[in-house]
Amino acid sequence: MKRIIAVGYTLAAAAVVTLAAGGGKIKVTSSAFQEGGAIPEKFAKNGQNVSPELRIEGVPAEAKSLALVLDDPDAPGGLFTHWLAWNIDPKTTQIPEGNAPSGAMQGKNDFGESGYGGPQPPSGTHRYYFKIFAVNSRLELRPGAKRKEFDAAIKGRVLAQGQLMGRYSKK
């Protein structure tokens, strides 16, 4: 009996943590590539370095803003941030190709530039995650903020999230 209660308590605690960490699901898609597919060279840093079109569905009505992150977990030095944007209108359903989200603030990527910096793996094939977060407030960050500041500002504020993963290989 104690074991059943302990398991039930653990499951309930896990559910609370999931909701507190943004347990809702947002659908993120692109006309440029499918989930897990190859990102066309046009979107790479050594290509045209333009951001792909992104479509967003399922944002909770209570969201006050959206945030966007593009990162590469396969980078040799650890997680590499390619794009940070926040305070995106929560009614946004599409981010057009080659454009920053309308009205958004943008941060500094790990190339040391503000805005989008496309895939550029030093070798092999890397995974790139386009992440969208529904946030319960606007984020109080200055333009050009770095990932560490962004992560601190968004902590505990995520209502829902979604991602689209694409792959890019060194050319």
Would you mind describing this structure in some detail?
The chain has 171 residues and is α+β, with helices and mostly antiparallel strands. It has a single domain (23-169), classed as PEBP-like (Phosphatidylethanolamine-binding Protein). It has helices spanning 2-20, 147-154, and strands spanning 24-25, 27-29, 54-57, 65-72, 80-88, 94-95, 105-106, 125-135, 158-169. The chain has a 6-stranded mixed sheet with strand order 1-9-8-4-5-7, with helices on one face. The relative contact order is 0.24.
What is the CATH architecture annotation?
A: Alpha-Beta Complex
Determine the number of helices (DSSP H or I, runs of at least 4 residues).
Answer: 2
- Overall 3D shape: globular
What would you call the structural class? alpha+beta
For the record, give the distance between the C-alpha atoms at the N and C termini, rounded to a whole number: 59 Å
Strands of the biggest beta sheet: in what spatial order? Answer: 1-9-8-4-5-7
* CATH fold group: Phosphatidylethanolamine-binding Protein
Number of strands: 9
CATH top level assignment? Alpha Beta
Specify the CATH homologous superfamily. Answer: PEBP-like
Strand-residue fraction? 25-35%
